[in-house]
Fold these 3 entries.
Entry 1:
Amino acid sequence: MKVTDINSILNPQQNSAVKKNDSGENAFLKLLVEQLKHQDPLAPQDGAQFVAQLAQFNSLEQLISINDRLGEVLGKTTP
């Protein structure tokens, strides 16, 4: 079984610099896809764990959206 470095999966073209939004949403999706690709077909992931991961992703999306909106509001209010 080949074991690869997590950084090579998350950032194949990038060195250590990670874009602002890429660090959250895309990294999580890449990990989720890799996990699904390499799971054992005879013993798939527990449904409750999968739903928990999707809920975490949904929360992450909402937090990023809130952060972006707060940044816009702060940008408009600072002189």
Note: Residues 15-19 have pLDDT under 50 and may be disordered.
Entry 2:
Amino acid sequence: MVSSVTSSTSTTSAQASMQKDMGLTSTDFLNMFVAQLQNQDPTSPQDPSQMLSQLAQMTQVEQAYDTNTNLQSLLTAQNTANGLNAASLIGGTVTANGNSVSFDGSSSASLTYNLSGASASSTITISDASGNTVKTATVGAQSAGNNTYTWDGTNNSGTTVPAGAYTFTVSSTSSSGSAVTATTYTTGVIDGMAMVSGTPNLTIGSVSVALSDILDVK
């Protein structure tokens, strides 16, 4: 029963798309085709091969619209399933590709990054949504692997910045003075989900994280 309803809906959608793009549906074409047969001049009938060619072309067009409609239905179903999966992650602590951090206006925020090797010094630069630097901090030696910096939400003047989404970069050097690669991550507790262009995105406060960027959820 469900398959029948789905098939009927897909067919209706395909017919509607054809009506919008071509000004007629396959039913309209068949009616015209039959009327053409009924009203043709008996002394000068149309070439059957030409008529069959027209019918075949219309059938191909209809099949193309049906295929496109079915693909759109599958995509919608997949996005719905992804949305349900994303919603099940709410409340979990996520690590994702990115360099965003959400500041709620009062609580300290944790900035996570991975160092390819041991560092002697690292400079962390935090910027607002307009790209303006609000905080520059220097940290001492850190080991290779994952590291964190706790930001108290203040700028270089010691004033607490407004709540919102910020970004950060990390520049590290080794004891020999060579650069150490630092990979930043977006981390935090997932508190919501939003659909962006039909794709589910998770939210961490003011920060939006694409489902495809998630590396780990605990």
Note: The first helix runs from residue 2 to 22.
Entry 3:
Amino acid sequence: MAFPNSRSIPDLLSDAVGQLAKLVGNEFALARAEVSEKAKQVGRAAALVGAGAVIMIPALVLALLAIAAALRSSGFSDAMSYLLTGGGAIVVSAMLIWVGLNRLSSDALKPAVTLDEIERDKSAVKEMVR
């Protein structure tokens, strides 16, 4: 008995391939949008870091000179007060650089939403094929 809306296997296969192509196109569009958003996020972060650094440099120099002056007035020699102040500044700046580089790691910038969608789509395609 033939059903009035029954479709042939080639028609069903053609529809499945068409839907798969549309799905892949949608995934690429999602990936492009997510990567674009991540790039904008990096750009905004870099601009803020740059602006903060420009403003921070004179303030940091004055603060380091004040610390060195305080060390000198507490009995340290000029050379030792500058050495201690500079060493402390190096340690703090190294920690800040390390934290900043970790935030720009590949894991932090990975398009997680797109990867999750692709995994779900793979599962859906496997179910369709079965």
Note: Residues 9-129 form one domain.
